[in-house]
Design brief:
This protein has 273 residues and is of the alpha/beta class. Helices cover 42% and strands 14% of the residues. It has helices spanning 6-12, 27-34, 52-64, 78-86, 100-109, 136-143, 153-157, 159-164, 175-180, 191-207, 221-226, 237-257, and strands at 17-22, 40-44, 69-72, 91-94, 145-150, 170-173, 211-213, 231-236.
């Protein structure tokens, strides 16, 4: 359903945004997390479970909770991007943008002519409230928030060209893939990885475009905001479930084995709901 893009407006106002990932494909998870108070949710269709229809259901659930969403595409695919936009996504994240030409292709795929090549079905799609939003075609290009991911050493070298492109709203550093591109996958605190991340940060900050990433071994969300990031996507719904479940089992194991502190109330994670 059409609505003014609050994330884009808040970034334009200079705000910092803290969000979370929904990668499970579970609509209930999106609905729950939308009521918690995050600034945004990322509905992950790159590594996350589910199809585009699941992402649309998650969008509906999150919108009911008042939390805007970014939908992460599986790839820089103009056909998928067109379908996601028609389905009502007004904020998109596209992975693995390696150079300026790829950024141009992404921007053009997401915009109506003459600024792009997005196909027309505005009279009937969910994005235009099924044709009920006056002037949707004239509003859509300006309303879109486009987040492009810089995720390799080669992309860092092209980051200035990527950020210079009109229509790129946020440059988002994918730290683990960045590390993997120099043979340091999961070694996020390695000096070579940190140096590459710092180089990406310098280029993006110099461009004036908002910068995003995830908390990692090199920095907490607090440190990232202090370093100039404006968008940080933190907790993941599956990790939150995993950690809460593991804690509940550990609590019980302490009781079973007699190693817990007698007389203490159980932690909130193990109380009845």
């Amino acid at each position: 359903m059409y609505r003014t893009n609050r994330l884009k407006a808040r970034l334009a106002a200079g705000e910092r945004l803290f969000g979370a990932w929904v990668g499970s494909g579970a609509v209930a998870n999106a609905e729950i997390m939308a009521h918690v108070g995050f600034d945004f949710l990322v509905i992950d269709q790159e590594h996350g479970a589910g199809e585009l229809s699941d992402a649309v259901a998650a969008l509906r659930a999150a919108e009911a909770g008042g939390t805007p969403c970014i939908v992460r595409a599986p790839w820089n695919d103009p056909i998928w991007l067109k379908r996601a936009l028609d389905a009502g996504a007004d904020s998109l994240m596209i992975p693995s943008i390696e150079h300026g030409d790829a950024a141009v292709a992404a921007v053009r795929a997401c915009r109506y002519p003459p600024e792009g090549t997005r196909g027309y079905a505005a009279s009937v799609v969910r994005a235009s409230t099924f044709g009920l939003e006056p002037g949707y075609v004239q509003k859509a290009n300006a309303n879109l928030l486009l987040v492009l991911q810089i995720e390799s050493a080669a992309a860092v070298e092209q980051a200035a060209a990527i950020c210079a492109l009109e229509g790129v709203d946020v440059a988002f550093i994918g730290v683990n893939d960045l590390a993997g591109s120099i043979g340091r996958l999961e070694q996020l605190d390695h000096p070579d990885v940190r140096a590459l991340v710092r180089r990406a940060e310098e280029v993006i900050l110099a461009s004036g475009k908002p910068m995003g990433t995830v908390p990692n071994a090199g920095a907490s969300w607090r440190e990232l905001f202090e370093r100039g990031y404006r968008m940080v996507a933190g907790p993941h719904d599956l990790a939150l479930l995993r950690d809460a479940a593991r804690l509940a089992v550990q609590d019980y194991a302490g009781f079973r084995d007699g190693t817990d502190s007698a007389g203490q109330a159980p932690p909130a994670s193990s109380r009845s709901y």
